[in-house]
Amino acid sequence: SAVISQKPSRDICQRGTSLTIQCQVDSQVTMMFWYRQQPGQSLTLIATANQGSEATYESGFVIDKFPISRPNLTFSTLTVSNMSPEDSSIYLCSVETFGTDTDTQYFGPGTRLTVL
Amino acid sequence: QKEVEQNSGPLSVPEGAIASLNCTYSDRGSQSFFWYRQYSGKSPELIMFIYSNGDKEDGRFTAQLNKASQYVSLLIRDSQPSDSATYLCAARRAGTASKLTFGTGTRLQVTL
User: Fold this and answer.
1) What digits encode the pLDDT tens for the residues A20-40?
2) Which residue does chain A place closest to B94, by CA atoms?
3) A23, A50, A105, B73 - which has most CB atoms within 10 Å?
4) What is the largest CA-CA distance in chain B?
5) HEC profile for A66-107?
6) Residues 47-106, chain A: which have Cβ within 8 Å of B?
7) Average pLDDT over chain A, rounded to whole?
8) B88–A contact, CB cutoff 8 A
């Protein structure tokens, strides 16, 4: 499996500000994803980060609120814009690796965001 | 109806017993199924996946898939206190660019 790091690991932000989360992988991967996990809930896919093109967003998530960059095959950023307390959540980066049986996703350590 | 459903628990089992975690899915196009373990405050960790009907064993873990019943389960033999965590079931459709749909997870407590 790939080694995935995220920065920052946690942050406390004021409403109306923006935070950019970085995801770094130790090897080139084709697929990178961003998820959100709100307190006590399961994972919700925000978007697929596409290398060299615009991210593909899931229903309920828009580029203006969650702009994503993917400049190369090992790095991606997610920005949470104009934050409100409802954005308080854990944000997780995941990558997909190709296997002989099936492709599998592995998660980074997450970024715990609190918006005041 | 949620696409992937799990009982939230907690499921409490004594140390050494078999823990049985269940998951049902509504999309018959789902092809692959994944079990993740998530400790409190940590990110999900892949335990195993299954895509063929029947059983798949990996150490103390056995995944079971029944596509006719749209049912996936994870058995943990010889449960240990370190197995106490939330277990997330995820399903993936064929040809959907790898999108995983997660259930809400089952919290497992292994008691001494």
Assistant:
1) 999 999 998 888 999 999 988
2) A102
3) A23
4) 44
5) CCEEEEECCEEEEEECCCCHHHCEEEEEEEEECCCCCCEEEE
6) 48, 56, 90, 92, 96, 101-106
7) 92
8) yes
Name A51's bridge partners.
Answer: none
Contacts of B95 (CB under 8 A, 6+ apart): none
The per-residue pLDDT for range A54-77, each reduced to its tens digit, is 899 999 999 999 999 999 999 999
Going by their DSSP bridges, the two strands A31-37 and B106-111 should be labelled as unpaired
- Amino acid identity of residue A66, one-letter, is F
Contact across the interface for A103 and B98, Cβ inside 8 Å: yes
Q: Is pLDDT of B1 > 80?
A: no
3-class secondary-structure state, position A112: strand
CA B32 to chain centre: 12
CA dist B102 and B35 (Å) reads: 10
Cα distances from A4 to residues A22, A69, A94, B14, in angstroms, run 10, 17, 8, 34
Q: Tell me the HSE value of A100 on the side-chain side, using a 13 A CA sphere.
A: 0
**What is the b/e burial string over B30-41, where b = at least 16 CB atoms within 10 angstroms of the residue's CB?**
bebbbbbbbeee
